[in-house]
Amino acid sequence: MLIRLTILAIAIVLLSLLFGLNRRLKAAPPWLRILHMAVFYGALAYMAIFAAIFLALRLFGYQL
Predict the structure, then answer these.
(1) Which residues contact residue 26 at a Cβ distance below 8 angstroms, ignoring those fewer than 6 apart?
(2) Which residues of 4-39 are buried (b: 16+ CB within 10 A; e: fewer)?
(3) Which of 28, 29, 43, 57 is the most exposed, having the fewest neighbouring CB atoms within 10 Å of its CB?
(4) pTM to 2 decimal places
């Protein structure tokens, strides 16, 4: 389940960056821009936390 959430978070961030949604949504209604920012930064934070935990485990010798 966590791997699926990580894949979804990576997909959200990559698609947003590849399509330049931040620039495209400048003319969109404010609620849509806020929703995009919340989802984008939520996915980015999830990826950062997952990477930090993964690196910490690897640093302390945990084998996957």
Answers:
(1) 33
(2) eebeebeebbeebeeeebeeebeeeeeeeeeebeee
(3) 29
(4) 0.81
